[in-house]
Amino acid sequence: MKTKNASVHHSNLWGLRDQKYNVLKQNNVFSLSRETLKPDSSDYLFVPQNVELREEYQSFYKITEIMPLNSVGIVTARDKLTIHFTPEEVWETVKDFASLKPETAREKYNLGKDAQDWKVHFAQNDLKQSGLDKKKIVPVLYRPFDKRWSYYTGTSRGFICRPREEVMRNMLEGENLGLIVSRIHRQLSLNYFFCSNIMCDFHILDNARDSTSLYPLFLYKKSSDEDKDLIELTETIKNQKEETKVPNLTPEFLKDFSNKLKMDFIINGTGDLNKTFGPEDVFHYIYSVFHSPTYRERYSDFLKMDFPRVPIPSDPDLFRKLCKTGEKLCSLHLMEANIETKTLFPVKGSNTVEKVKYDPLKKAVFINQSQYFSPVPENVWEFHIGGYQVCEKWLKSRKNRKLSGKDIDLYCYIVSALEKTISFMQQIDHIIDSHGAFPGAFVNQG
């Protein structure tokens, strides 16, 4: 029996409901304007897609092919119990929670019914077995620019439901950088990229069900011999047994990158960017590319579907310039940059966040009836990282809390950091355009 290939067509109809009903009444499936699709075997999407761009984009390295060890952020299952604004709040909570009877703890902390992987007595037992040690109070990047604190034992189905110890321990054992990306980008923005030097939460970029993944740049070796997975991860690790930490970068990518740039790779830090490059240079370069507005728009259809891909630069000068810009962006986002801010908090009062409202005429963000931050440019106020409007989200997360002096300084910093981020993103596009734009500035890796 012979089979015939079916044709797939796509059509959009926009407008008010009555208008669309009228169009449908007057037409049929054959008379409506439509586009013939050429679905790709990898996805078989029933929507139009630029085939040439798809081939171009798929010639790049997927981030999972560059940094193989990764996981989603920690899943607490009970944020209000496990995540706090200060180490002191964490300590008081864990001491009290561990001392109570399970049902008393459930009622006091409003924990609801037990879930499959998180139960009150599991969490209490985990705390007791840890010895209630203050050293286990650690920072966690809860949302963009929003560092909180938690108690971390690394035990699954414990105080933290899914601690992702295999990845997060690398963010706790020493200095590190982590790339934060989402596999699926929502329509809210194309800015599903961030970085961290501490462990991060599952919903750091979006509170929807879609998860966010953390890619640590360095992997710390365990003191025991239980390091087989780490040794098998990359040949680079095998050749550097004396190192306490090794880059989470695949040999295939590094070899290709090194050959194209005609530079040698060094295992730690940064290179001179003339003859050598290091893991931090790779990280900064990737971070720059992901913050190119043209990159995001050009490959938007593909970024919404899967982990992002990274092109290799066509010449060392482009690489050097993007490295430097990416380093500055990372410094801003890690809240380490020394920047001046024009934003003020001029009116004295309770400092309590009651209702957050933006006044575009005054370029001011009010936290209550009388107190506000100003100036806050409108494009900064509207700037999204992932699914969050950062300037609004940061304040709303502190509703009914009194802002400290450090909180006020940090919010002013965030405004300036976002303003500089917008400027750096424009600079990145200018750098790429001056080297041939997309795809000319990047070589085909096929």
Structural notes for this entry:
The structure is a single chain. The chain is α+β, with helices and mostly antiparallel strands. Among the domains are: 1-47, no CATH class; 357-427, no CATH class. Helices cover 38% and strands 14% of the residues. The chain is built from 19 helices and 20 strands. It has helices at residues 17-26, 51-58, 63-66, 79-82, 87-99, 102-108, 120-130, 165-172, 228-233, 235-238, 251-261, 279-290, 293-298, 300-303, 316-333, 378-381, 390-396, 405-433, 437-440; strands spanning 9-10, 35-36, 61-62, 71-72, 137-143, 146-151, 178-182, 193-196, 199-200, 212-216, 218-220, 245-247, 264-265, 276-277, 309-310, 357-359, 364-366, 372-373, 384-385, 388-389. A four-stranded antiparallel sheet has the order 4-10-7-8. A three-stranded mixed sheet has the order 6-5-9. Strands 16-17-18 form a three-stranded antiparallel sheet, with no helix packed on it. Strand 17 and strand 18 (372-373) form a beta hairpin. Helix 5 (87-99) packs across helix 7, helix 12 crosses helix 15 and helix 15 runs antiparallel to helix 18 (405-433). The longest helix has 29 residues, at 405-433. The protein is globular and about 65 Å long. It starts with 8 loop residues before the first strand and ends in a 6-residue tail after the last helix. 36% of the residues are buried. The model has no long low-confidence stretch (mean pLDDT 89).
